């Protein structure tokens, strides 16, 4: 089977904008502030459509159901959902201060755990990320600041630049600050608990819902001042994340060089951060912003038609 590309699903967000048009060459829905582009998702209420399929309504769900082991590898069941959700985030304003529940308590809260990785694809001036707490901040201090709406003094904010990456595990307090274009690779989950929203109102003019009780049960209060990985600019490969949920590698290729996956026996996701590539022998082209599924049953030889950077996501397990 050839590599599989998907049609993005756009989500309006109060903190979004229109920069995906210029950054990724996307055609966005008119008159909306688009914060998220869901480029690969397999959930009951959202399933990615496959580009170029003879059946215009074929989705990632129907593809897996038609050949679970060919797509996903030995032992995969047709009902097992694709375990990774891939998003591009256009953050024109600061996102809420939030947390995702750890696996140990998510069921008791009625949610799903979510570990995610942020790859910073582009930034505006003074862009930053908020991840974790300032060194030594206690739970009691956090609760007091939450009531006084002074949490900004206690959270860990640091500047970022294109090419940096950070793993945000379940339980880690976080917010993406304004001026970031982020490629987010995460567990297939849509559970987010907002603990604070900086006094902002939503698209409907009302304050957005907060989840303070759930957040306080989920936050790791021993997570102090984590740092992002630096950009890797040399030709070659480096590991950005290697956790129980997935592995992500960054690969920088010169024009004309090939990226061979071998016969992996499990699927690989290829995310094009910059440049262009082509699959041989199918001739399928891949450009900046594309997320491509390389099926488990097919050895793929991908050639860089110009110098490029890709991320490879693998070693993931069924989402259930």
UniProtKB/TrEMBL annotation:
Binds 1 zinc ion per subunit. The keyword Repressor does not apply. Residues 7-103 form the Phosphomannose isomerase type I catalytic domain. GO terms for molecular function: mannose-6-phosphate isomerase activity; zinc ion binding. The active site is at 194. Gene3D superfamilies: Jelly Rolls (2.60.120.10). Zn(2+) binds at residues 100, 116, 174. Pfam families: PMI_typeI_cat (PF20511). Keywords: Isomerase, Metal-binding, Zinc. One of its GO terms (biological process) is carbohydrate metabolic process. Transmembrane segments: none annotated. The keyword Metal-binding applies. InterPro entries: Carb_Metab_Reg_Kinase/Isom, Man6P_isomerase_Firm_short, PMI_typeI_cat, RmlC-like_jellyroll, RmlC_Cupin_sf. Its cofactor is Zn(2+). CDD domains: cupin_PMI_type_I_N_bac. PANTHER family: FRUCTOKINASE (PTHR42742:SF3), TRANSCRIPTIONAL REPRESSOR MPRA (PTHR42742). This is Class I mannose-6-phosphate isomerase. It comes from Puniceicoccus vermicola. The lineage of its organism: Bacteria, Pseudomonadati, Verrucomicrobiota, Opitutia, Puniceicoccales.
């Amino acid at each position: 089977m050839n590599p599989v590309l998907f049609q993005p699903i756009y989500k309006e967000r109060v903190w979004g904008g229109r920069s995906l048009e210029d950054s990724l060459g996307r055609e966005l829905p008119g008159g909306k502030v688009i914060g998220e582009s869901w480029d690969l998702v397999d959930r009951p209420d959202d399933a990615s459509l496959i580009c170029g399929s003879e059946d215009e309504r074929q989705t990632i769900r129907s593809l897996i159901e038609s050949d679970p082991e060919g797509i996903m590898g030995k032992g995969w069941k047709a009902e097992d959902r694709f375990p990774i959700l891939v998003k591009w985030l256009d953050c024109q304003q600061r996102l809420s201060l939030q947390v995702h529940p750890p696996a140990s308590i998510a069921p008791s809260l009625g949610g799903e755990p979510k570990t995610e990785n942020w790859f910073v694809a582009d930034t505006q001036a003074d862009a930053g990320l908020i991840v974790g707490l300032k060194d030594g901040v206690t739970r009691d201090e956090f609760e007091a600041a939450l009531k006084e709406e002074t949490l900004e003094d206690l959270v860990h904010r640091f500047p970022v630049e294109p090419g940096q990456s950070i793993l945000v595990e379940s339980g880690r307090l976080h917010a993406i600050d304004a001026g970031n274009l982020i490629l987010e690779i995460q567990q297939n989950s849509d559970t987010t608990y907002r603990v604070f929203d900086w006094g902002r109102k939503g698209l409907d003019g009302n304050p957005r819902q907060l989840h303070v009780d759930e957040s306080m049960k989920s936050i790791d209060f021993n997570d102090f001042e984590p740092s992002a990985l630096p950009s890797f600019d040399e030709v070659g490969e480096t590991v950005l994340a290697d956790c129980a949920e997935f592995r992500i590698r960054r690969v920088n290729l010169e024009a004309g060089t090939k990226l061979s996956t071998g016969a992996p026996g499990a699927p690989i996701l290829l995310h094009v951060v910059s440049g262009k590539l082509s699959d041989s022998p199918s001739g399928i082209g891949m450009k900046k912003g594309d997320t491509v599924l390389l099926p488990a049953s097919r050895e793929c030889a991908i050639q860089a038609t110009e110098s490029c950077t890709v991320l490879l996501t693998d070693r993931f397990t069924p989402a259930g």
